[in-house]
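[Discussion] Sanity-checking designs against the backbone

I'm trying to build intuition for which residues belong where. Below is a structure token string of 273 positions. I'd appreciate it if someone posts a full sequence so I can compare it with mine line by line.
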């Protein structure tokens, strides 16, 4: 009976994760939007926060469709909506990562970024996502295999194609490398500042700014890294996944990436601001 219960338990975890993210993410977006309207801040970081708000909103709008599928075990919204819901979660993950990297670099090197440079960086991420990545994925994602209309998020079958394996390994390599480099540099900076300002480190703005910057690295390590590490394992062991258990584990790690939308609650409490 273990074989029967495991997928059921994994489905429950999946549903719970998405409900937490939907509730927490929506609350964070509403409260953060209210605070931004009140404060009317014009800082460089605010540009990133607004972009993250919009990005998280798009992703949260797709979660009820996912929940419907995992609860009913049937997709009722057609092939295009299935593709869109699948694509949004990946675009959200990589665009969020790009914005986090922007925030970390600005704080890490204490760059007096002009607003125009920040706007250009944010604008480039949006343009590439909207005009290049989304149309490409909509055109080619899930087209090389036949799928039943009642099924969704089953595009794992295409992951075995040579070009898909290469693309996935490249994405994993880039994210892991960037994250590892930023983590090491950030820890070295925090250590240097801790030694310099010890024992009253918390009274120094510079140290607090770097400690808050480390928050984004932690989110990346907790939310994005497990999915990418598991993806390598999944690609190599996909052929053994006869009972779709690996697929469900992959979906759980993918759901974990959406937990980054809770970052708005952290902004509000001042952990990351």
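Best answer:
Here's mine. Compare freely.
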């Amino acid at each position: 009976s273990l074989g029967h219960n495991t997928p059921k338990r994994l489905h429950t975890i999946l549903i719970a994760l998405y409900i937490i993210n939907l509730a927490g993410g929506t609350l964070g977006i509403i409260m953060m939007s209210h605070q931004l309207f009140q404060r009317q801040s014009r800082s460089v970081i605010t540009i990133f926060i607004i972009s993250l708000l919009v990005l998280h909103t798009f992703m949260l709008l797709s979660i009820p469709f996912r929940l419907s599928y995992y609860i009913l075990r049937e997709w009722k919204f057609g092939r295009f909506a299935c593709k869109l819901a699948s694509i949004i979660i990946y675009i959200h993950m990589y665009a969020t990562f790009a914005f986090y990297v922007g925030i970390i670099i600005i704080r890490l090197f204490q760059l007096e970024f002009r607003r125009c440079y920040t706007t250009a960086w944010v604008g480039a991420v949006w343009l590439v996502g909207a005009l290049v990545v989304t149309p490409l994925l909509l055109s080619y994602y899930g087209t090389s295999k036949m799928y039943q209309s009642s099924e969704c998020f089953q595009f794992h079958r295409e992951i075995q194609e040579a070009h898909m394996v290469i693309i996935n390994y490249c994405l994993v390599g880039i994210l892991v490398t960037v994250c590892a480099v930023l983590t090491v540099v950030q820890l070295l900076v925090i250590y240097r500042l801790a030694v310099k300002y010890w024992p009253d480190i918390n009274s120094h703005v510079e140290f607090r700014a770097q400690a808050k910057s480390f928050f984004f690295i932690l989110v990346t390590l907790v939310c994005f890294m497990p999915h990418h590490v598991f993806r390598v394992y999944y690609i190599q062991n996909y052929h053994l996944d006869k009972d779709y258990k690996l697929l469900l584990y992959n979906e759980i790690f993918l759901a974990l990436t959406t937990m980054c939308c809770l970052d708005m609650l952290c902004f509000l409490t001042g952990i990351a601001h």
